[in-house]
Each structure stands twice: as structure tokens, then as C-alpha cells.
Amino acid sequence: MVDLSQYLPILLFLGIAVVLSTAFVFLPMGVSRLTGSHKPDAEKLSEYECGFPAFEDSRGRFDVRFYLVAISFIIFDLEASFLFPWAVSLEYTGWTGWGAMMVFLAILGLGLAYEWKKGALDWE
Amino acid sequence: MIHTIAFYLFAAMVIASAMMVIFARNPVHSVMWLILSFFNAAGLMVLVGAEFIAMLLVIVYVGAVAVLFLFVVMMLDIDYAEMRAGFMRNMPLGLLIALILLAEIVLGIGAYRTGAIELGTPDGTGAAPLGASNIEAIGSLMFTRYVFLFEAAGIILLVAMIGAIVLTHLGSGPARGQQNVSRQNRRRPEEATRNVTPEIGKGIEL
Description:
heterodimer, A: Methane Monooxygenase Hydroxylase, Chain G, domain 1, B: mainly alpha
């Protein structure tokens, strides 16, 4: 069973982080609300773009190639996270485990070669 | 004591942020709440003793899957007002999905109440080594007994990679401003420059 007391400092740190970030977010809001004058109207709240009304929605579409980068990232991220249990359990798995991981790496290496040859790694 | 407090804190945060995923008006905010939900689920996994799964949740789900969701949300040109229309029309489908999820939860609780899952086989081939840490136990099973599933996961990842390339990679014409690195590295000063001493009053040949 896992010794959870090792995680106590992380939990304490988490609590401190929550308290500090809450203070940083809400303290300036509260102070400015109490000290400054707060009279918003439609003109003040409208977005300001060099004196012009906003031309278009600020949320433009992303290039689809970001998606390709993200997919590649997920796949190699998973590959790397499979390497950790493999590396620490080699004494139990022996050559079978070693060969299994090599086959796995070869499969993904094939994918990487395909991706490279297709030019999907180039941005252009 | 602290264990119980932490459990209820994480569980409440998971449920609250999952609700906010649904109720947030902006899909980008939904993804942010989803990330918070993943973090708290990782905390729950640590509490239950599955450290490796917890780290995997943070690395893979928060680091990669959430980013992918964010890209998808930003890539699709969604009109949010239009998306919200037709609520009554899509209601039966939504109710159906909600019922299926409810049935899954009920089945899951039923499976939980039947007792602990028997890990491994009677002859002991599928059991994790005693006294090994969480990650060692996972590794020792994944690369021996479940090696076929592991390789199948590799094939699935390969299919995902090739599928993503085929779907998104728009035909590559001759690239503009592309550099040939090996040719640049092969270039030597002798073949690129030339020393001349031109006579006075005469030009040089280029």
C-alpha cells in the first residue's frame, strides 16, 4: 500500500497555493471596489480598439496544423509515459519486456518516419 | 482524518468543476473547468493508492488531451448562440445519453458491491510482485501478461497518428523559403569566396 503521508507536504502546499491565489485575485478587486469610484456605463465597458469599433470577433479560428502538433504530442507523450513503468520493472519482465517495448517503439517509430516523410513536421 | 478531508475536498471539486464544464457559457471556459476536474481526479487517484495513474492523469490528460480539446474548440468556428438553439429538439437525445450514463453508474456501483476484483490467475502468472511499488507492479504486468494489449495500444496510436496526418495535412507544394540544411553545412569558404588582387584601372571578372 502506498504511504500517503509522503504526500502531506504537497497537500499543505496546495492549500497555501489556493489561499494565496485567491487572495491575489480577490484582494485587488475588493480594494479597488472600495477605494475607487465604480460607475460603469456602456461606453466604458465596450472593448477599445484604437478608437474604432471592434472589427471582428476576437476569437479567430486556429490553423488546423496546431491540431496535428497536438495529436503528435499526445502520442509521444503516451509513449514516454509507457517507458517509465517499463524502465523500473525490467527486473521482473526481463527480455520479454525489453522486446515488447522495442516492438512498441518500432511501431511508433514507423509512425514518426511516416510523419517526417509526409512533411507533417514542417510548418511552412 | 486528513485523508477523509482530502477525499471530500477532491471529490467535491471534481463534481463542482464537472458541473461547471456543462454550465459554462464559453466552451474555452468549459475546457478550463475540465482541466481542474482532471487535477482533482488525479488527487483522488493518489488517495486511492494509484500513484502512477495519478501522474498519468496529470501528464496525459491535463498536458495533452486538454490542449487538444482547446485546439478543437478554437478550431471549429462555433456560433455559440446558434449552438444553444434547438434545445427542445435535441432534448430526447440528451435524455437518452443521460439515461445511459446513469445506467452505467448503477452498473458500476453494482459491480463494486459484489466485492474486490480478483487480480491475476490461480497459478499466479498474472499477479503483481509482492512488495513492489505501484509503478513496478503495473510495469511487471503490462509487459508480460498483457503484452498483447500493450502492442495493440501501440498499433492504435499509430493509426491515430496516420489518421491525423491524412486528415489535416493539406497537400504540400514546393515549400517557400525552405532551407537545405545538409547543403548549407557542406558549403566551405573556398567554394563560396575568392580572393582577387585587381590591377589599378581595370575591373574584375565576376
